[in-house]
Automatic annotation (TrEMBL):
Family matches, as InterPro entries: FldB/FldC_alpha/beta
Name of the protein in question: Benzoyl-CoA reductase/2-hydroxyglutaryl-CoA dehydratase subunit BcrC/BadD/HgdB
Pfam families xref list: HGD-D
PANTHER family: 2-HYDROXYACYL-COA DEHYDRATASE,D-COMPONENT, 2-HYDROXYGLUTARYL-COA DEHYDRATASE, D-COMPONENT-RELATED
Cofactor: [4Fe-4S] cluster
């Protein structure tokens, strides 16, 4: 297939957290909000006058300083963020708005704050209590927390407009991005997809890491390009997979999977399009912030939600996606030492195999996989086993 016009530039942009689009927005006086988890409604961090940047630590090498502050028994993603912060990599931020979602991330952001890694005069950090259950009582608390820990500080420190009109504007922009990303992702359903999982991933990841208004024209142009694109007339993959898991912001990890013959047709992870790029539906007659928080609570697929309905729903959700995108198997991954995903991955990889009948590859991985030979071998073996299964008619 012909190369996509913006792919290379975005790949380069994603090599830096403080990338050229972020720099341009900061120069225009926009407030850069550091975001570390989907439990804070992203749309609240993208009100007019500010934009969110999901923190990553691309091209991480050693994480010794991060390990010194965090110990070697916490997730490498969090350690890599501390390392990058100490190196001055997040100095462009005006604030970090973090949830008390997992203890590791909590320690990570606390370290960034205590070590004074961001030097802007008005820089601040907030932490908020986010729900572990999805019900109306949890929602009330969630709404209060978002008002106290997100909207009020943004307004009080930086004068950000947090009125309903501003919230609506942010929702509209979010929905535009979602529609474009989802439409782009739909092409992965085709037998000869006009976009690979890797290409799609680059565009989707960029939506978490760049100012959305600057990305919109790029997404629009790319969608047009993909609509017109001639797909390869031969299959360039051996099997189709759903990739499910936690923080996947490592381009090499996606490349490694696809280079070994497994096309990623659906992405259900913290930097993926499911559920992060679900449109927010707003109706009249109810407080806007409540509707926004409900959306994130109801659509959220994080294993932090521990009520039985949510636990069951997560398996059905993966099953539905796998069917819709014609996946032959599922890859469940987790970051080493992540408690939430440790349980989720372990249980799901059995249940999705035993009860739902999918071939499942279960991986725990470091933050950066590089060209890991061990992982390559495991993906190759998985691809072969799924192929054999298909030849044997699913037995
Ligand atoms: S991967 Fe797990 S431990 Fe790491 S930040 Fe995410 S939820 Fe927390």
């Amino acid at each position: 297939m012909k190369d996509l016009k913006h792919l290379y530039d975005l790949e380069q942009l994603l090599q830096e957290c403080n990338n050229d689009l972020v720099k341009e927005a900061c120069e225009k006086g926009q407030i850069a909000v550091g975001d570390v988890c989907s439990m804070i409604p992203e749309v609240l961090l993208n009100l007019p006058g500010c934009f969110s940047v999901r923190l990553r630590a691309p091209r991480t090498g050693s994480i010794e300083i991060g390990t010194y502050y965090m110990t070697s028994l916490l997730c490498e993603y969090c350690r890599a963020l501390v390392e990058r912060a100490v190196e001055g990599g997040y100095n462009f931020l005006d604030c970090i708005i973090a949830p008390d979602a997992c203890a590791a991330m909590n320690r990570c952001v606390e370290n960034m704050e205590l070590l004074k890694t961001c030097e802007k005069e008005k820089f601040f950090v907030t932490y908020s209590d986010v729900p572990m259950k999805s019900d109306e009582t949890a929602l009330k608390h969630y709404v209060r927390q978002m008002r106290l820990r997100v909207l009020e500080p943004l307004h009080d420190v930086y004068g950000i407009d947090v009125s309903d009109a501003a919230l609506l504007e942010a929702v509209e922009q979010h929905n535009k991005v979602c529609r474009l990303i989802r439409e782009l992702g739909e092409f992965r359903k085709e037998e000869y997809p006009r976009i690979t999982g890797y290409e799609f991933y680059i565009f989707c990841l960029a939506t978490y890491c760049c100012p959305k208004d600057m990305l919109l024209p790029i997404l629009e142009e790319t969608l047009e390009e993909v609509r017109e694109r001639e797909p390869d007339q031969e299959k360039t993959y051996r099997i189709r997979v759903l990739l499910a898991g936690s923080e996947i912001d490592d381009l090499d990890f996606i490349k490694l999977i696809e280079d070994n013959g497994a096309l990623i047709v659906a992405d259900r992870h913290c930097f993926g399009s499911f559920p992060g790029r679900d449109e927010i539906k707003i109706c009249e007659g109810e407080d806007l912030l409540t509707q926004i928080c409900r959306h994130y609570m109801v659509t959220g697929q994080c294993p932090r939600f521990m009520n039985t309905e949510k636990v069951e729903e997560r398996k059905d959700y993966a099953d539905r996606l796998a069917k819709e995108y014609h996946a032959d198997g599922i890859i469940y991954e987790q970051m080493k030492f992540c408690d939430y995903w440790g349980y989720e991955r372990m249980a799901a990889s059995h249940i999705m195999h035993e009860e739902y009948g999918y071939p499942v590859l279960s991986i725990d991985r470091p933050y950066v996989v590089g060209s890991s030979g061990q992982l390559r071998t495991r993906v190759q073996a998985f691809v072969e086993s799924v192929e054999i299964k298909k030849i044997q008619g699913g037995r």
